[in-house]
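Final report, section 2: Outcomes. Of the targets proposed, Zn(II)2Cys6 transcription factor is the one most frequently requested by collaborating groups, and we therefore present its record in full.
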Amino acid sequence: MEESESVSRAKHIWNHIIYADRYLSLMLGLYHGITDVALDSKGNGNETPSSSPMDLLCRIAGSIIERNQKFSKITPSMVRMTQTIDAELMSTDPLSVVEDPTILPPGKSLERAQAYAKLMTRLWHYQLIAWLHLPLLLESGTERRYDYSRQSCLEASRHMITCYTSIRHLTANSFCCKSLDFQAFTAAVTLLINILGPTGRSHLDSNDWPAIETVMTSLETLAEGQPPDKVATRGLSVLRTLKSVATRNNTPQSDISDGVPPMDCQSRRIKLDIPYFGTISIDYSTRSGLPGQQRLNNVPPKPTGTDLAANSALSSNVGNAAEASAVHEQATDVGPLLEARLELGPADIWSFDPDLTALPSFLPGLEDSWDLGL
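The predicted structure is given below as tokens.
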């Protein structure tokens, strides 16, 4: 017996409530409010429970949430659980075939709606991969035992930006979703952290720059709108600051009106509070007379201090990492050397005590300059 249109629509809405619960719970570092039983009970009578791509990803998101809440630091058990979840993710189909937005009929159409649904599923798939491996990427430093997680997180971040760009093209930039813009921002920060870190490739030759620039261009468009988008405005400022360090530009300039604190003239330090990554401190100092100065592209970056979280553990968050060296400028001629050092500090985002009333805001600086519209 076919169900009525109203019942079908109600089930469709319920599905999206479940998806939103898992998405927001993972994003905010909270326990999810709806268990997998809701996914198991979506079938009627003797029907096989639904196993749509989004249902599978919701279950996996629940597993990542459980891992985040169970472990307060990286342990062998945490790594094994991460590997198990990774195997589940790798067995799912990311719906790689998506129509080119430029060849779809203009305006509202079933084809565009289907392409949009596929792109959002792909984005969610790669976001889960990135967030699954992000703690290990931040712990990796120069340790090769976490290299798989680092590479997986970076590759997923690249795919996230590709999906984000396609969604923007598909909707002719009329789509408004601050959390989506924030996802693209975190993907770009992940790529920049890799470039700045001790394991980063040659900064000026990195193949990730086009993807980073794409996100910056999109955020710039949103930031220049009326009224200006807070997420885009602050995200763009953070990316510009990190880019200026990575490309050996002049001392990064920041504007407190963009949500980025100004540089301390005495210590020449900028601190950036970024959700999921924690506090990023950028130190600038000028040194001269260093021997053996060579071209940048001929010499890989050398650590100036402690490797990225070499001996640290995640306290209660994704973004906890100890000091990380960033980069050394290798000048082509004799002269002062501009040194930038990147340090990553903790951010209260890994997990929560159930008594939320006693805790501060879960996202650093969210009230003042991060408005995700949640």
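The two ends are 39 Å apart (CA to CA).
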